[in-house]
Design goal:
The chain has two domains: 10-283, TIM Barrel (Alpha-Beta Barrel), CATH 3.20.20; 291-401, Sulfite Reductase Hemoprotein, domain 1 (2-Layer Sandwich). It is α/β, with parallel strands linked by helices. Helix 1 (36-49) crosses helix 2 (61-75), helix 3 (90-96) crosses helix 5 and helix 6 crosses helix 7 (168-190). The protein has helices spanning 36-49, 61-75, 90-96, 98-103, 119-133, 149-160, 168-190, 206-219, 234-250, 271-282, 305-327, 345-351, 384-399; strands at 10-12, 15-17, 24-28, 53-57, 82-86, 106-109, 138-143, 197-202, 223-226, 232-233, 256-257, 261-262, 291-294, 335-339, 354-357, 367-371, 374-379. It contains 13 helices and 17 strands. It is elongated, with a radius of gyration of 24 Å. The strands form four sheets. An eight-stranded parallel beta barrel has the order 3-4-5-6-7-8-9-11, surrounded by five helices. The protein has a five-stranded mixed beta sheet with strand order 13-14-15-16-17, sandwiched between helices. A two-stranded antiparallel ribbon has the order 1-2. Keywords: 4Fe-4S, Iron, Iron-sulfur, Isoprene biosynthesis, Metal-binding, Oxidoreductase.
């Protein structure tokens, strides 16, 4: 991973974004904010999964009234910055509900729909002034689904007059970039410091997102929030988001990230947080949970038992980490291997901190356990999973110092 693109540092209620600070994971609720209990519960669920900042929708009077109650319920459990997501009527809501304006820790402003025609600049200015009044940072959040059409039209018209015009795709990208940067400059002219501004410029295609953020990084030093918008459902969304984030993060671009993953019906909203954490951990940027290595299985493996065991151990670790994270310093760096046969099993297990190699088809029905590269146990019988978990617990208690 290249050195990070140097940006201004933004303080969001104690969470540092940019300026060399660790990359921050963000998420967004999908509850109706007016339902303050459901919203607070989801905020806590997202933070427990690893989200460090949570955005909530503030779209009407009821939502604005509920913000202070959401914050009270959340802060009774833990401190987490709440970002208000405003569209169309944010200037009115901040004006009419000062307790909402004061309670939120950051405002998200979309310059594409903050106002239209002659009202745009005035209403943008009002939102920035409220941010200044309450000492709140802002995110200039441009989205190509709600882009400033006046700007886009002007750039298209200017481009059509050129002898060698650029493609419509390139002009749209330029419109997104200009909307972001000119809005940020306007905010500075009104009184915001560069260190109070985060920029995001979201599109829904990987290569376009990469192109836009490379330009933003080249043209400015504002803190950058990465996210592929409308990425999709399931595996498609995971692949698209992971590809986009990995390319930019590997180039040192990005200070905070979110995965706009569409959850399946009845699927936990925390999937988007887990995805961000997994991307950062895969790139070696941050560690959140112990890493479990497991082979994919082949004709040598005797059954799906090792797959079940790998899943069982993964779930066990996720549950245990709720307590281990506070009790054992550095435990998130733990590496565990669950392998299915003799070919790579012992070798992979030796490379992990602790690993188990299950017997494959036709192999002796024993499962050697390796700790710090040395064989320490040989497990047999029907209770291998529980015995291995106990060995894991003892290893963690012995190796990792109390926090």
């Amino acid at each position: 991973m290249k050195n990070r693109h140097l940006t201004h540092q933004v303080d969001v209620a104690g969470v540092k974004i940019g300026g060399g600070a660790p990359i921050v994971v963000q998420s967004m609720t999908n509850t109706e904010t007016a339902d303050h209990k459901a919203t607070a519960a989801q905020v806590l669920e997202l933070t427990e999964a690893g989200s460090e900042v949570v955005r909530i929708t503030v779209n009407n009077n009821e939502a604005a009234k509920a913000v202070i109650r959401v914050k009270e319920l959340v802060e009774a459990k833990r401190k987490v910055p709440l970002v208000g997501c405003f569209h169309y009527n944010g200037h009115q809501l901040l004006r009419d509900f000062p307790e909402c304006a004061a309670a939120l820790d950051k405002y998200r402003i979309n310059p594409g729909n903050v106002g239209f025609g002659a009202k745009r600049d005035k209403q943008f200015e009002m939102m920035v002034e409220y941010a200044l009044k309450y000492s709140k940072p802002i995110r200039i959040g441009v989205n190509w689904g709600s882009l400033d059409q006046d700007l886009a039209t002007k750039l298209m018209d200017d481009n059509s007059k050129l002898s060698n015009p650029r493609s419509a795709e390139e002009i749209m990208q330029e419109a997104i970039i200009q909307s972001s940067l000119t809005s940020a400059k306007k905010a500075e002219e009104i009184g915001m410091a560069a260190g109070q501004i985060v920029i995001s410029a979201k599109v829904s295609r990987v290569q376009e997102l990469v192109a836009v953020y490379r330009e933003l990084a080249a043209r400015s030093n504002y803190a950058l929030h990465l996210g592929l918008t409308e990425a999709g459902i399931g595996l498609k969304g995971v692949v698209n988001i992971s590809s986009a984030l990995a390319i930019l993060l590997q180039e040192g671009i990005g200070d905070t990230i979110r995965a706009s993953l569409t959850p399946r019906v009845d699927e936990s909203r925390t999937q988007e947080v887990t995805l961000c954490c997994e991307v950062l951990q895969a790139l070696g940027v941050k560690t959140f949970n112990p890493q479990v290595s497991a082979c994919p299985g082949c004709g040598r493996t005797s059954s799906t038992y090792f797959q079940k065991l790998a899943n069982d151990i993964q779930n066990f670790l996720q549950l245990a980490m709720q307590k281990w994270r506070t009790d054992y310093k550095g435990v998130e760096d733990l590496k565990v291997a669950v392998m299915g046969c003799i070919v790579n099993g012992p070798g992979e297990s030796k490379h992990a901190d602790i690993g188990i190699s299950l017997p494959g088809s036709g192999e002796s029905p024993v499962a050697p356990v390796f700790i710090d590269g040395q064989k320490t146990h040989t497990l047999r019988g029907d209770n291998i999973a529980e015995e291995f978990k106990q060995i894991l617990i003892e290893y963690v208690e012995k190796r990792f110092s109390k926090g």
